[in-house]
Design goal:
The chain is mainly α. 53% of the residues lie in helices and 5% in strands. The chain is built from nine helices and two strands. The chain has a two-stranded parallel sheet with strand order 1-2. Helix 5 runs antiparallel to helix 6, helix 6 runs antiparallel to helix 7 and helix 7 packs antiparallel against helix 8. The longest helix has 17 residues. It is globular.
Length: 223
Amino acid sequence: NTSMIGQSMPQNPDVEEALMLLGDVYGSMNRNEDAVKLYEKFIAERPQSERLPYATFLLAKSLLFTIEVERAIDHLKAVRQKWPEHRVFADASLLLINALDIAGRTDEAKALVDELLAKEEKAPELERRKSTFSRYGSEAPELKNVDRWIGVEGSNVTRVKGRVLVLCFFANFYINCARELQLLSELEKDLGSKGLTVWGITKAYKAKKEKPAEGQKAWTMDQ
């Protein structure tokens, strides 16, 4: 219905809000390529719109989900340059830090955090990110309070030293977590021989104390 407003009533005063809502719907459905097309069209056809800062920011966000990181960075920088007083500036800045980090441009991300902290007296999110960056390159800490491993027993960070270790904290009743686990599992199959290890960690299930029943090879999800 939202799409129909834009197609059949292009002059309707609510059309821009409808298009923004449609972009949100695409994002929630993981149809990020459709969201990209929608925001690009919005920006091209409505250069004077008051929603242009939001559309540009959301375009960048959708590009990140389609792994077009460098394009996302360009649009986020454009938001910061064109609309420094707009309320979306803060969100664009935080997302730009993430995008730069994803792109491996960590020095730029650190510099941006420092730049923003110099202007903000109280910014706990920026302080958290600065603390995170300070740990880059240091030895990974050992995992604590893991009661049970399903699969390889006695897993620890030291055992996989020299490999790339991905930790996925999940609750399987969320559809996005289930999809993420599936993608990471496939990624590990493809890149495991090249040094990638994936561990899933959850508190969503209460494992029983007793051992698996006779003939049962592994702990089930219910357990």
